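During the second half of the funding period, the structural biology subgroup turned its attention to how the target accommodates small molecules. The most pressing case was zinc ion, which had performed well in the primary screen but for which no bound structure existed. We therefore specified the complex as follows and requested a full 3D prediction, including the ligand pose.
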Amino acid sequence: MAYAEVAVNAAAPIRQTFTYRIPDSLPADRQGMPLGVGHAVYVPFGSRRLQGVVLEVTETPAFPEARDVEAVIDPEPLLSPERVALARWLSDHYLAPLFDCVSLMLPPGFKRRPLTVLRPLVSLDDLPRLGLTERQKAALTHLIARGQAEQDELRKALRLRSVSTLVSGLVLRGFIQRSHELARPQVRPKVVPHLRLLASVSGARRRARTLRDEGGAPALRRAVVLETLADEGPLPLAELRPRGLTAAVLRDLQRQGLAVREDVTVVRDPLAGRMYPKRATPALTAEQEEAYQRIAEALEDGKQPRTFLLHGVTGSGKTEVYLQALEKTVALGKRAIVLVPEISLTPQTVRRFGERFPGQVAVMHSGLSLGEHFDMWHEVRAGRYAVVIGPRGALFAPQPDLGLVVIDEEHEWTYKQQEGSPRYHARAAAEELCRLTGAALVLGSATPDVESHFRSTSGGSHRLLELSQRLQRTESGGVTPSPLPQVEVVDLREELKAGNRGIFSRSLTAGIGGALSAAEQVILFLNRRGTASFLQCRDCGHVPTCTSCAVSLTLHQPENRLVCHYCRRARPAPRACHQCGSPRIRLLGLGTERVEEEARRAFPGARTLRWDRDVTRGRDAHERILARFLAHEADILIGTQMVAKGLDIPLVTLVGVISADTALRFPDFRSGERTFQLLEQVAGRAGRGPRGGRVIIQTYSPEHYAVTAASRHDYHAVYGQEVEFRQRLGYPPFGRLARLVFAHTNEEYAREQAAAMVRYLRGERDQRGLPNLDVLGPGPAFVPRLRGRWRWQVIVRGQDPTELLAEVAFPRGWTVDIDPVSLL
Ligand code: ADP
Ligand code: ZN
Ligand code: ZN
């Protein structure tokens, strides 16, 4: 007898599997194989029938009273054994519900909502003599009128918050029957009716000629349809209608055995209709060749898991290395997954893959319709595409024979899922997937994450590959090294002293003016979170920080107190700067609209274009804005983080950073690293063309190491500083973090619960002898109130926070984020 360990879609935070007996009577799959790992099944669960996925098959049950698996949902296993193992790893590593982790890898629309269906067992005539309350009467009347109803629908009809007690009472008394079903699937393969010739091509043509000879409109219509099918093969009915197909024609052709109507499953492909001309493979530069060779060796070896960190400045040819590594992968009969931070912001990357591998690129992202997503999933599983490109979730595409995974801009925070479970990091998950499949992993970045770089130095698990030169295309189609843009740092304190109160420094104003008069383009960059709530002295640039946590203190209104979001120490907001005594200590913050206004005022003739979340709603909005700027329909592009990504616009000769300070002073231990990454990335947009380019960074903190390093494009300077400070304070990579947030509508209660959690965790830690763990907090979250709930957080820092947390049963209201990318 065989037993299945099943991850069940019970909509509850369960990290374990449940045991079910596999009955001999259960239909096997198409190959006659018994039910196995990765199969989706229906299982009984309490009184319900739920979906599940088999994670393991055993001979001995882990639970003796196991019930039977009810049915197989899909004859093909939905998950490969490696992906089953990956789901388990995700659940263990991120302390996330097992089915949430399995769900990442299931086809879109697979999950079906469990429904509770109610049927009345009495009639309207019975009601008066049953001794019912008004509410019970109303419920039964509704059910009798409808014949049956879903419990949630009944709740809405009665306008109640909950009807479960009401329903249970009626079930107990035998007045209604309650059963459980699953909601209808949300998506199915798309089927399009086609018309196909049954007659031979020559037979069809002969018949068409006869019809034409007959003459008359009806005969002519039949002739044209037959000729079209003879020329073009089977066609959708919809396409044949304009060419004469009517209901009568269809009936006649079928009756005469000339053609047949057939349902054809079509693929909803989001790239359909986009034709990319095929591009040839260029010869690599010596540096690229060196990097490529190391990756190619790992691909050929195919067994040893290998992670490479490809560190190269923007424009140094990393993408070209990915492309050739992909060619190698394909030549070896394998396939690849390429992750990009956000697909709509990287249309140029998608285009380059499309040009090199026409028809072999699948794009998967959340902007697809459910139908497109569903079809791509099945096509990918069938092995139709050499490469799947997409944001973090594309890692879980069912790409068979995986040989290569690339993570471009690996330092980006978007690779970490922050909202919703499991809160995984695609980089960590990719490492595990590559370990399981033997695929090679290439992490590429101009500004590698400190942790990735740390692991590629002495004794680490990654191998460092470096591209030191920025490339520029020559007339002949080759490349030549080109200098990185010059960076000028403008001290905003000096501007104030000189009487300039505008948001553009004198230097930036002159720069923009110069670029405009030369008919060149300008990008003005602003940090997205422009409304950060921290204080800064306008005279000396000083920002109050917490001495024990090294993060900026946040101003809390209306109490007007400065609070550390890590350790919660608080003090009244100062009226004057502690460093220089100036009373001009203010909140920082500026929005893109304001910058656009100022730019229009200062440069009345210039055409401005704004690019941020507010103006880029809807599909292809990003591409449209980018296309407009590329076509030089605007002179100045004003944007947030989005403008920093992957743009390659030759006419841009000046990039202005309105203020480096908002990023710099963010109360997060990664703010220095983050600022440098941003500045470098923004700088990478300047001077991509033959005219060269420069960057102007405005700041109140010109001496901050992230700024000075960015001005020299010196990654290693920042890296050195970061490693030193993180080692001192036990931050990653020297320790790991877990962030626990409790949210509740009652502020007092939220704080008490968080405090109780701190006491409990400290007690557990001491009792279990885990001395190397700090339990910090409780503190208010950076956004102290979200969607009506107050949020308090607890940070656990140490070698292995999960050791302490894995055994904790977190009550409702808690979210657990292991290895958070931000403590905000
Ligand atoms: P990165 O991905 O590091 O930003 P890219 O791969 O985009 O760099 O390279 C920058 C530019 O140089 C691109 O326009 C690219 O097409 C071109 N390029 C890169 N490598 C080569 C090469 N070996 N031969 C010709 N052009 C190249
Ligand atoms: Zn000051
Ligand atoms: Zn602190």
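Two results from this model are relevant to the next phase. DSSP finds 25 helices and 36 strands in the chain. The mean pLDDT is 87.
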